[in-house]
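Service request form, structural biology core

Requester: graduate student, group of Dr. S.
Request type: structure prediction, single chain
Budget code: on file
Notes: please return the result as structure tokens.

Sequence provided:
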Amino acid sequence: MVADLAGPRSDGSYIALQLDALSFAQTAGSVGVALDGSAMLSVDAWIRFNGLGAQTCALAQGGSFAFGTMGGSVYLQFTGFPLVLSDPGQAQLRDDTWHHICATFDGSTVRLYIDGVFNSGQLITGTGASTTNPVQIGSGLQGLVRRVRLYNQ
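Core staff response, request fulfilled:
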């Protein structure tokens, strides 16, 4: 797990990372989950946008992996694999609203979810790239990130 800022505080409010599109959080390059497309994974985040950027990364490792948004869509990409993008005709991300975005990869198929609803899936193949670059949370994102979770299943 990379980060989990999920639980409410005693007053019912939540801890959230506030980002201005130029800032991000960063952790070590090794997070205990392969980010090169060689293994199953699930990643999700709760995000409230204050301006939808052309491309943001809820979680990314330069040269290996990116999960985030492109305009009103969600995407997942492993370096060396095709980009998987959600269908904006089914659901779009909007400003000033909390959204739960999620991607799963079972070793061959990426599935994308927006606000708990399956949006799109795509079979992908490729040769990934592993790296020791740091893992970043919220790169290019303007708004709040309440939770980012990464699982090896």
